[in-house]
Design goal:
By secondary structure, this protein is mainly beta. It contains no helices and eleven strands. The strands form two sheets. Strands 2, 4, 5, 6, 9, 10 and 11 form a seven-stranded mixed beta sheet that branches. Strands 1-3-8-7 form a four-stranded antiparallel beta sheet, with no helix packed on it. A hairpin with a 4-residue loop joins strand 7 and strand 8. The N and C termini lie far apart (37 Å).
Length: 122
């Protein structure tokens, strides 16, 4: 199983980025997908998730209204559209897959991608 995240980069505050995470060797539609981030010196946190089957989403309060998670089951890919980026969004972003519908607990995720760096300059 492989999750490959890409799309990170350096962007000015107020700008946008779209992260993608391509999954292979899993039945993608059977997995809920989460986007986590970890900034230096901080704990890893779930910023957005999209559930299997129903496709409902979760967003951390800090990103509500700015980030949008979506998935393309036909292409085994999950996306995170990030708008109105702020310097505090700077972190390494990871995608992860879980068979659970409970998105928040990171210990329930079976597979993790390698992370992609997002840096937002002020």
């Amino acid at each position: 199983v492989q999750l490959q995240a890409f799309g990170g980069g350096l962007v000015q505050a107020g700008g946008s980025l779209r992260l993608s995470c391509a999954a292979s060797a899993i039945t993608f539609s059977s997995y809920s997908m989460g986007w986590f981030r970890q900034a230096p010196g901080k704990d890893r946190e779930l910023v957005a998730g999209i559930r299997r089957s129903v496709g409902s989403t979760y967003y951390a309060d800090s990103v509500k209204g700015r980030f949008t998670a979506s998935r393309d089951n036909a292409n085994n890919t999950v996306y995170l559209q990030m708008n109105s980026l702020r310097p505090e969004d700077t972190a390494v972003y990871y995608c992860a897959a879980t068979v659970s519908l409970a998105l928040i607990r990171d210990d329930l995720y079976q597979y993790w991608g390698q992370g992609t760096q997002v840096t937002v300059s002020s």
